[in-house]
Amino acid sequence: MGQGPMGAVGDAARGNQIQGLGGAQGTPATQAPSFSETLRGALGSVNEAQQKSGALAKAFEMGDPSADLARVMVASQQSQVAFRATVEVRNRLVQAYQDVMNMPL
């Protein structure tokens, strides 16, 4: 039907759609979350870790007996690691964007 290798690929794709194998044509049972939803969720969890760490530190400073030093330090370290990972992801995304923008057309 098509000319050259690209035509053969197009013919094969049309054949798969006819046979019900086209991935984009079918309705998936569960749809994966979008990139923005995943990013929003990750940022939300980092924010939650920082809020928890801040609340525990404040409770410890106020003398709350339920906020022991070990829990405060663990929460602080968890929030720091989460924040550093977020910054690293941001840096890599910016670098990837710059690489794409600097590609010759």
UniProtKB/TrEMBL annotation:
Record's keyword annotation contains Cell membrane: no
Pfam families per the UniProt record, alphabetical: FliE (PF02049)
Q: Keywords assigned by UniProt?
A: Bacterial flagellum, Cell projection, Cilium, Flagellum
| Location within or outside the cell | Bacterial flagellum basal body
Gene Ontology molecular functions: cytoskeletal motor activity; structural molecule activity
GO CC, alphabetical: bacterial-type flagellum basal body
Q: What GO biological process, any one, is recorded here?
A: bacterial-type flagellum-dependent cell motility
Give the primary localization class. other
Q: Where is this region: Disordered?
A: 1-34
- What PANTHER family does its record include? FLAGELLAR HOOK-BASAL BODY COMPLEX PROTEIN FLIE, PTHR34653
Per the record, the similarity remark reads:
Belongs to the FliE family.
Designated name of the protein: Flagellar hook-basal body complex protein FliE
Upper lineage is: Bacteria, Pseudomonadati, Pseudomonadota, Gammaproteobacteria, Lysobacterales
